[in-house]
Amino acid sequence: MDLSVSIGTLRLANPLIAASGCFGYGVEYANAVDLASLGGIAVKGLFLSEREGHPPPRIVETPSGMLNAIGLQGIGVHRFIAEKLPELRRHRAVVVVNICGTTIDEYVELARVLSEAEGVAALELNISCPNIKEGGITFGCSLTGTHAVVSAVRKVTRLPVIPKLTPNVTDVASFARAAEDAGADAVSLVNTFLAMAIDVETRRPRLSNIVGGLSGPAIRPIAVRMVYECRQAVRLPIIGMGGITTASDVLEFLIAGATAVQIGTANFVDPMLWPKLLDGLTSYMNRHGIVRLSELTGTLDTTREEHAWISS
Amino acid sequence: MLFDIDAAVLENRRLSEHYSVLVLEAPAIAAATQPGQFVMLKPTRSTDPLLRRPFSVFEVIRNDDGTPSALSILNKRTGAGTALLYDVEPGATLGCLGPLGRPFEPVTPPAEAWMVAGGVGLAPFVTLASRLQQLGTPTTLFYGARTAAELYYAEIFERLGVHVVLATEDGSRGVAGRVTAPLADALSSVASESEVKLYVCGPTPMMRAVARLAAENQRACDVSLEQVMGCGMGGCYSCVVLTREAGHAPHFVRSCIDGPVFDSTRIVWEALTH
């Protein structure tokens, strides 16, 4: 049985990737899971320099979901390369580095630096974080901005370039198309949904940043729909995500059109879920006589069933 | 070693309308737990509420031959997750992930250990007291609550040979007032050449006050902080506390993996709001 998938030139042993912002720098989870057993690890979003992020409270639970406004706290790309990447290499992890900038030049510089580092498999462009005002999202909410940042990065790296799209736009598919036109190797979607929660007793927001990003099972049906819409619009591989918790959720995204998936919030709840998801995928393949999991991508059957009781 | 166990609930002892002690069959975690470490408990099999909750390991429970068989946690009902855990009945199973976090560093004789607990902040001190007893370290527990009925389990510490000093805000048991008063008296009367290390866990204002007393009296002080936690593994960056290191600007660190136990001098107490 073959669970491998291809994202451009990148071959992954299986379609399960740890989502950026939900798996630290990967090394935090080495005692919970064999990092090499994951299809890939998208590490926490990196700027050129260190960032402190927002003050607490940074998360709040909502029905079957959570809001976060971490604010991209991070060690910066140089410390990442010096301190984390060697350890990730030792674990034989497939490392997708998520990069964030406030200007196109910063994305370009990050791409250059990471292209020279040993052990980076792909670049995911964070143009969709809802929690910081000054960067990323301003590119991700404009078609010309998305095109500009993707094509600028494309010019300076041979690594697969994967912009991560925001769902906080009217038509996600048009952004997938802009990314494809600009030379992206794949798109990943969706980032979190801009949302908020209020403590009615104090009339204060529950997050220090007032608003945050909603993730978890609550958003899954919307994310599946967006993956399905992008599948219609582009030929690029799609990395789907949004509330995936079970193997059945993974399959839903693949059938909707994703080539691979990312798992984020579920990893907070169950950091040892990865082998269980792989078991669930192989048992599905056995039941359905599927030899290569990649065959499943985009196989949604939308033909209408004929019902005798309708025509009679 | 880290374990994720579907732990059977062996007992759920309701101490009051708010507090319960939940006993979980998780021998591997119990055996691996260091004093002050915590577990992440999943309050339900459903996705609502979604996240696990962090709890200090309260007691490591052993078979007759001394092998760890179970652990308990001290639960205070404050929200949806802790309410579910308050109501859970024996026979149910709960996802239990651990042990997690940086443990206390117990001092050895001739140094003395003084533990300072407020309310549910008693939770990490049974494991610490047991270790200190093994080391032969003279140990005192300063334990405060609002009223006598909320002073639970002082007798566990007496059995471990700990000198127990109780305080209640309403004066119904022990010293009347806050537990910091007898602590301050003891700190001012102990000889300056004798080594005393403080260990504190409780409400933030209490920990802040004890950290100040420790600094004024030049005593080492470990605090066990309770922050809102998403994952317990260092993955989500939600449980951060502001710390300072000499020569650096204040910096957020994750209390799940850099803590929950911190040297109290590292904490920027003004920034700790809850």
Written account of the structure:
The complex is a heterodimer of chains A (312) and B (274). In chain A, helix 2 (104-116) packs parallel to helix 4, helix 6 (220-233) runs parallel beside helix 7 (247-256) and helix 7 crosses helix 9. Chain A has one domain (5-52, 73-193, 216-301): TIM Barrel (Alpha-Beta Barrel), CATH 3.20.20. The mean pLDDT of chain A is 95. Chain A has ten helices and 16 strands. Chain A is α/β, with parallel strands linked by helices and 312 residues long. Chain B is globular. Chain B folds into two domains: 3-100, Translation factors (Elongation Factor Tu (Ef-tu), domain 3), CATH 2.40.30; 112-271, Rossmann fold (3-Layer(aba) Sandwich), CATH 3.40.50. Chain B starts with a strand and ends in an 11-residue tail after the last strand. Chain B has a seven-stranded antiparallel sheet. In chain B, 47% of the residues are buried. Chain B has 274 residues and is α/β, with parallel strands linked by helices. Chain B has helices at residues 27-32, 80-87, 125-135, 154-159, 180-189, 204-216; strands at 3-14, 19-25, 38-41, 53-56, 59-62, 68-76, 93-100, 112-118, 139-145, 163-168, 175-176, 196-201, 220-224, 240-243, 251-254, 261-263. Helix content of chain B is 20%, strand content 34%. The A-B interface holds A 21-24, 28-29, 31-32, 44, 52-53, 55-59, 61, 63-66, 68, 70, 73, 216-217, 245, 265, 267-272 and B 1-2, 4, 42, 47-52, 80, 95, 97, 227-228, 230-231, 233-242, 251-252, 257, 271, 273-274.
